[in-house]
Amino acid sequence: MALAAAVMFQTAGSAAEEPHVVPAPVQDMSSGAGLETAVLAGGCFWGVQGVFQHVDGVVSATSGYTGGGKTTAQYEAVGTGTTGHAESVQVVFDPTKVSYGHLLQIYFSVAHDPTELNRQGPDTGTQYRSAIFPMNDMQAKVAKAYIGQLKQARVYDAAIVTKIEPGKTFYPAEGYHQNFLTNNPTYPYIVINDLPKIKNLRRLFPKDYRSEAVLVSAVR
Q: Boundaries of each Peptide methionine sulphoxide reductase MsrA domain copy (predicted)?
């Protein structure tokens, strides 16, 4: 993805990851009062952010870095693949409208391909890994149970490689990465790799899809 890697768009011959129809999680979190937060990584954060910005019940979806330290939470450093960070998205949501488990269902279905190890589509490196960063023990429990459920259901042709990484801090990405899909709908990388994810969200989750994205307004 990346501004550097996408300069000449070697992705021109690539196709977006195919969506998968996956079952809803058997185990989920109850809808408590107040907003909740999920942090998910699934390749380039442009597309993952774009997907969740179109999900009803999501209050905000912010691109950033999770897994490493504060001093290396910057695009150039993360791009080396040596910081421990993954490009990730912090999703703040209203659990009375959309549950944590349902967000995971969307994540595993249309936001990325959980069978690609340390990569997504044309992007390679640990910074593009499939990872869930639970905010508490219950999120970790739900995520672990759901991965087990999907493995047992055999909905993918390959093994799920998504990691659950608790106790990590999310750091917002630079301002020019925020709302990138909405702001750059004709950018070749977005057209090839990410707009199909939005179409798949609308097709597979019509009750959850909202046409107007909820955008990040305050960026560093």
A: 37-187
Would you kindly state where each structural domain of the chain is located, as residue ranges? 36-205
For residue 4, pLDDT over 50 is answered with no
Cβ atoms 41, 131 nearer than 8 A? yes
Q: Which residues contact 87 (CB under 8 A, 6 or more apart)?
A: 1, 41, 43, 44, 45, 48, 63, 64, 65, 78, 127, 128, 173
Known catalytic membership, residue 76: no
Instruction: Give me the phi and psi of 133, to 5 degrees please.
Output: -110, 90
Residue 150, token pair as written in the block: 């999907």
Predicted confidence at residue 10, as pLDDT, reads 41
CATH number corresponding to 36-205: 3.30.1060.10
The CA-CA-CA angle for residues 37, 200, 148, to 5°, reads 55
CA dist., res. 137 & res. 142, Å (int): 9
The token pair at 136 is: 């508490």
Q: Which of the following is catalytic: 16, 44, 132, 213?
A: 44
From 193, 202, 189, select the one nearest 53 (Cα to Cα).
202
- pLDDT tens by residue, 158-212: 999 999 999 999 999 999 999 999 999 999 999 999 999 999 999 999 999 999 9
> Residue 37 burial by CB count (10 A; 0-12/13-18/19+): exposed, middle or buried?
middle
